């Protein structure tokens, strides 16, 4: 994609985000500044609702469970930082990350204990259908395919697709026109300007489906998950990996020794809405989740957790992911 076209697309996406009121676009190249020491957090405190005031004549299994004291069982993505990751030994929590804190916040808001279950994203739909979990906050992108199986709340985050790529494909000889052209490569879509790439994708995912249509000149190679694809890139078996931008950033944090050979393309290019998932059949509770998401977006809660995990990397200090992000 030519630079002018890419800039026009980015502008259109940003304008659409403002019009639609999307939650928060992850723009890794323009990060919020870390909070100054002693600065006050400007976000609303947690208010526990009185579930006894919820009408009892509603056909709502979720509200019934909450009125009975829970617990609320919430699935998180077990290896998808900064959303979720196993904690180091000795940490107060078994899991750490953005979604972990958000799940605990939701539990305190509802006044019920929360039990967290670590899952892969592909396991969420079945776990909800079987009643093994009540909700999922697992870095899940809302898609048509998933929407046929579960109900989704409004997005609490909106992220973009990104890419890891060998530097030699995006860095030309210094002082040449080729260097100037390649230095313009900033986003996922710029991979289409590089013919003959071998691109790794996680099988049966939205990034794989989109890559099939976006990169017709590339050879797509499927892997069980994004972590395996990134390991193949580090081993020199492929030239690039495409996945959600949070994974791309997390992998770089966990693999600093690869910075000399592998770089990232993180300029926002697509919109991937990240939502809470729940079982079908309880529209009353779904409406509550939408109100809850709106409130935490607007009162600063989402921005606070985003700052902590996406910008400051708190998850990396607390997690046990020596094998890399998945």
So what's the overall shape? elongated
Q: Specify the helix fraction band.
A: 25-40%
Would you report the number of β strands? Answer: 12
Order of helices and strands: HHEEEHEHEHEEHEHEHEHEEHHH
Mean pLDDT, all residues: 85
CA radius of gyration = 21 Å
Count the helices. How many?
12
Structural class: alpha/beta
Q: How do the strands line up in the largest sheet?
A: 4-1-5-12-6
**Intertermini distance:** 29 Å
Q: Spans of 5+ residues with little confidence (pLDDT < 50)?
A: 7-43
Strand content: 15-25%
Q: Main sheet? A: 5 strands, mixed
Which secondary structure elements does this structure contain, and how are they paired or packed?
Layout (H helix, E strand, L loop, with lengths): L2 H18 L40 H7 L4 E6 L7 E2 L8 E2 L1 H13 L3 E6 L4 H6 L5 E2 L7 H4 L3 E9 L1 E6 L10 H6 L15 E5 L3 H9 L4 E5 L2 H9 L5 E5 H10 L7 E4 L6 E7 L4 H16 L2 H11 L2 H5 L8
Parallel strand pairs: 1-4, 1-5, 8-9, 8-10
Antiparallel strand pairs: 2-3, 5-12, 6-12, 7-10, 7-11
């Amino acid at each position: 994609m030519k630079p002018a076209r890419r800039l026009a697309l980015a502008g259109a996406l940003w304008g659409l985000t403002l019009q639609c009121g999307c939650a928060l676009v992850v723009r890794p190249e323009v990060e919020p500044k870390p909070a100054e020491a002693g600065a006050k957090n400007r976000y609303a405190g947690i208010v526990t609702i009185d579930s006894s005031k919820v009408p009892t004549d509603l056909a709502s299994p979720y509200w019934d469970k909450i009125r009975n004291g829970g617990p609320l069982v919430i699935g998180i993505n077990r290896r998808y930082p900064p959303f979720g990751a196993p904690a180091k030994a000795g940490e107060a929590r078994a899991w750490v990350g953005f979604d972990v804190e958000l799940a605990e916040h939701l539990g305190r808001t509802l006044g019920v204990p929360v039990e967290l279950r670590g899952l892969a994203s592909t396991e969420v739909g079945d776990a909800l259908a079987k009643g093994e979990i009540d909700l999922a906050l697992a870095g899940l992108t809302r898609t048509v395919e998933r929407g046929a199986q579960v109900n989704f709340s409004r997005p609490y985050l909106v992220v973009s697709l990104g890419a890891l790529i060998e530097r030699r494909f995006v860095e030309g000889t210094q002082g040449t026109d080729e260097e100037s052209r390649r230095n313009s490569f900033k986003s996922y879509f710029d991979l289409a300007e590089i013919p003959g790439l071998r691109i790794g994708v996680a099988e049966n995912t939205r990034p794989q489906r989109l890559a099939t249509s976006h990169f017709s000149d590339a050879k797509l190679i499927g892997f069980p998950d994004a972590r395996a694809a990134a390991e193949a890139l580090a081993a020199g078996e492929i030239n690039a990996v495409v996945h959600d931008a949070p994974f791309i950033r997390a992998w770089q944090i966990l693999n600093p020794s690869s910075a000399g050979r592998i770089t990232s393309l993180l300029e926002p290019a697509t919109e991937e809405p990240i939502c809470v998932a729940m079982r079908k059949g309880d529209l009353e509770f779904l409406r509550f989740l939408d109100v809850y998401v709106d409130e935490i977006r607007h009162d600063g809660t989402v921005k606070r957790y985003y700052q902590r995990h996406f910008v400051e990397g708190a998850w990396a200090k607390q997690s046990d992911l020596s094998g890399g992000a998945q």
